[in-house]
Amino acid sequence: MLYIKCPHCGMRSQNEFSYGGDATVKRPDLNKEVSDQDWDNFVYNRKSLRGKHLELWQHLSGCRQWIKVERDTATHEIFRTLKANEDNS
Amino acid sequence: MTSISALKNVHLKGKFGDYEDKNEKDLIKIKEIKNLLIVQIVQYKKSTLSIDNFNLDGLNFKNDSLSVSNNENTRILWNGPKNWLLISNKIELIKEIKENFDHMNFAVTDLSHSKAIIEIEGDKAKEVLKKGCPFNFNELNKNNCVNSIFNGIAVSIDMINDNPCKIKILTLRSFGESLYHSITDACLEFGYINN
Predict the structure, then answer these.
(1) With an 8 Å Cβ cutoff, are A12 and B148 in contact?
(2) Is residue B7 assigned to a domain?
(3) In this complex, which of B65, B149, B154 lies closest to A9 when CB atoms are compared?
(4) Which chain B residues are closer than 8 Å to A13 by Cβ?
(5) Does B91 touch chain A (CB under 8 A)?
(6) Per-residue pLDDT at A49
């Protein structure tokens, strides 16, 4: 079982969370022309990295907040967690 | 306001489980709690009001995880950032809530009839919860609350007292009977008495 440190609630079991996908994907700007390729990349194409990966998780059975989690997809080691509006850098 | 019991079909009075040859005070006590005012208060993200300026029934709204503001009638549980659950036996408090928390800054939802509440009391109450919930209950003290899951059912757990341990477990009304069965199954080995 993984333990994820929710920035709002503290250390909690993975069972309380729901995975929300890649946190680095950015929606194309509104009111601008978007090519099919850019839209395809935004909606479907993912890198599926092996290694460090920034992910969105929702603390569904806790505070219900979306958070960012930096996790190694090979070892499952979690390096840090951030609030959804915090900068990744 | 008298609410219809969420657990009347399953909650039977008597002693159950491994209660023989045990002192009655050592058994876990299980009760259904009803007729409470339960209100969720959420402050919108865009709201610039300071929650420190608000109080209800003399209680402040704390913005720390696990925290509960309480007096003998009312408890305000931290549910998440800018999100609280008020539980009170003063039904008339709803009027004050609606007057003080304007709809431009707050979402106020009356959940009084939407929850099933089970209260368990006894020295083994935490052991019962540990069987189905991944939270570390050794960290949970008197007047703490936590949102978690019990056997896959989303629950809010409110620690009323620690000596003897007295815990209220709130869940969605429709999950009440399933949660009741999970809790009573977990209580069997200790023996329990339904009031």
Answers:
(1) yes
(2) no
(3) B65
(4) 134-135
(5) no
(6) 87
Read off the pTM. Answer: 0.91
- Per the structure, how many domains does chain B have? 2
Distances (CA, A) of A89 to A27, A54, B74, B82: 19, 11, 43, 26
Asked if the structure places residue B5 within a domain, the reply is: no
The Cα–Cα gap between B5 and B166 comes to: 21
Each residue of A24-77: pLDDT tens digit?
999 999 899 999 999 999 999 998 889 999 999 999 999 999 999 999 999 999
Grouping H, G, I as helix, E, B as strand and the rest as coil, residue B66 is coil
Expressed as residue numbers, the domain containing B101 is 37-110
Same domain? For B98 and B81 the reply is: yes
Tokens of A22: 């890649």
Question: Where in the sequence is the domain holding A56, given as residue range(s)?
Answer: 1-26+51-89
Predicted-complex ipTM score: 0.89
Domain end among B77, B110, B143: B110
Asked if B147's CB is within 8 angstroms of A65's CB, the reply is no
Q: In whole angstroms, how far apart are CA B195 and each of A44, B32, B135?
A: 55, 8, 27
> Is residue B75 a contact partner of residue B68, using CB atoms and an 8 Å limit?
yes
Which chain A residue lies closest to B156 (C-alpha atoms)? Answer: A62
- Could you read off the pLDDT of B37-88 as tens digits, one per residue? 999 999 999 999 999 999 999 999 999 999 999 999 999 999 999 999 999 9
